[in-house]
């Protein structure tokens, strides 16, 4: 599957080799009549009749075809393309034998006899059954995945990543890579162990002078020779990987011949057991290296002389020498190492014999006299445990002997019929190897003496390989066969691991690995081979086969775990594309396999299991945070969709309980002409407000129809979400006008119970100067609609001065002016803001307003108690606002507001003409009032009707100077009510002893302007230095004729403040004192 062109929404789309691929068929234009109805589709969608040949041959892609195609593209038409050969491998050669070769290996030859002797037949069978059941269940899951479509190069990594998504795919792919790399270390260590222990022991560089130093010397030899072997193998892989593949058949022949030699030897023991005597001192097994005869003394020419064995336990060869106490008390006896199939030794090997490091290997049926002093035993030539043994350790050491089941799926591109061969070949290979392992456990226990089985390195049989002494015709068949088998397996690991890393790197999901996607001109992964060699060297420096085996067990078990999960997930989700040809699978089997994998991980080594999971988790989070977005139609995405659907259905559409309420934001954005966000700080503020929690829907409107604006809508969606890296959903609609578009968003955004409950928008700062006279109308209608929809509304003024997500505000305050109760939203918002690191250092202050008849002291106490119950830390202040006379400034503001509103309604003029007309009327008004004040009409009070007429003509005023004469004359004006409840402005000129009354017809506007002016004075006085001021937002008038006046009221209310958030509740309680 290839990543196609990224669409405007940022999600990579899958490119198909069939759809929209008409370049090669442009000459074959359709000119028939039978399908004229589909002429429009012919341009992009080909006819089925011309497509069938391509569809049928699509599966005949060979492994690595992508690289070949890229090379062809580079050379262009200068090179004629060679026809691609059809793969011809069947089930036997393509799947069965490679799996057999990969499964049977070093553990079978070097450790299985020791595991049987240590754990006993019964527990060894339990280990074999557990591990083989795990791989069989994994193979069933893998067969289902592998037969669900074409599996190109990449094998198991490809299957997991395309089934579980890039995050899991990358994590498990790298775990599988590390497992394969450490497997290479294990095979190299096995090769060196066979070489130095059984073939040429004299080649050891480090030689132990004392017995207690032998393990350390062996490890150092393993490190030196292992490093040399790794270097040599890496050079072979680098220079001639094709020879490695050609030699695979030779290595496989070695494995099969070795297995046959073992079975032949077992059959031979039934009637003619081989002669491998074991020397016992008391019941202790002796290392049979430095003596020929199992005797303390012997008669030579009628003279009793001591043997070489005597010299090992005594300080001199004399008969009166001082000897080891245990040597003196016990006799030596000789038993057969391989009693034979019919000897009944199986009864002694049924149960295990675990012990600590240094425990001597003893035959419990032999008579023994214990010695008082055992301190010298470690220096004596006894066979002893080199490590502490217990059941779970043996599970970890044994598990690598059942890995290798992916060999067939890794070659899927070379198979004639992959969907048939992979299930049959893999399952048959696992069944065969399971039979070999189970029969080997039973036959080893039935043929070989227990002390020999527990002798890991064959010290008791003159340094022979224990499994070799059982084989027929010679132990060298097994030694040479296992040596070449380990060599071949190591080369295969060093060949496969770099290619796996290269496949991960070329997928581009892990950015820092991209350098390993490059290689030589022929595609060989040079850099990946270097990294593989480096990691392999770590395993070789560990030097112990028993220590490396559990490490790679973890990584393989992680891989198998996710193969099982992938199959179970796809089955349970009933994905439409999940149609495997292999039908013998079930989600329960896959879950059982996954559970078995997890159990085996923790059984083998709980700390290694945790480390492997931590590594996988870190890789997962890294890919999630930094990796490339890939849309592979994976199961995790399908699971997310199912979980989201289930949660949405369960989620009631009714409002949540007050305790669960949080602002679910719909952010209404305005876009510039190039579709960039006009106020990006609005998105930053939204992120700070919800602190990464809750729902965010970013909405915007483009004017026009969807048919003409489709591309622009997608581009706008992409730019909206990339701005400030907002996490949420974007919804851009095309509408004939902005008003209807925002209305549709408020009504339809969200789904089911996941709908917004709060609308966040910016204050239309240019509503007075805007070329579009409907901007402020749109704003007010949006306010009305949110109120009607019972949604909270947040309006940010001067939003461009709000902090970004990277800013850190210092010590300061968030001031809340709580004028009316809105459900507690004013209290909740500062608390939510302070959860974000931008506002964390800010303190919260709450102001409330008291009237003349209110008890401000009691109000403060009650508010403090209320905040205490709400668990909110805030300073409380009660501001007293006395009933004062309405000032001349207030009255003039009202006059200017109403006259301006009336003019804008009556005049359909251009902007310039409108401003010129307003200015001329204002100038006329100012001169008229100035003249009237200066003439000092003394009869004005006695003739109110005449005064009212003159006032109605000159009602427009712009500044306080319109009622203040030029100096030195002074005027004192105050709000005045008559007995007939008529109100106006009473102006007194003391110098001229005159009183002027200007009657006002609409007193509600005057009162509202008075509130705005007085409240603004108080807020500016107390909160001008605050980082943020939160205010109750007054509702718009019910009479739409006063909409513009409403905007003027808000302007006056917010004048002189920097960052302001107007808050209007949604008509429900959003904060509670109860737990």
From TrEMBL:
One of its GO terms (biological process) is potassium ion import across plasma membrane. It comes from the Eukaryota. Residues 680-795, 799-934, 1008-1075 form the SLC12A transporter C-terminal domain. It is a multi-pass membrane protein. Residues 95-267, 385-666 form the Amino acid permease/ SLC12A domain. Keywords: Cell membrane, Chloride, Glycoprotein, Ion transport, Membrane, Phosphoprotein, Potassium, Potassium transport, Symport, Transmembrane, Transmembrane helix, Transport. Pfam families: AA_permease (PF00324), SLC12 (PF03522). GO terms for cellular component: plasma membrane; synapse. GO terms for molecular function: potassium:chloride symporter activity. This is Solute carrier family 12 member 7b.
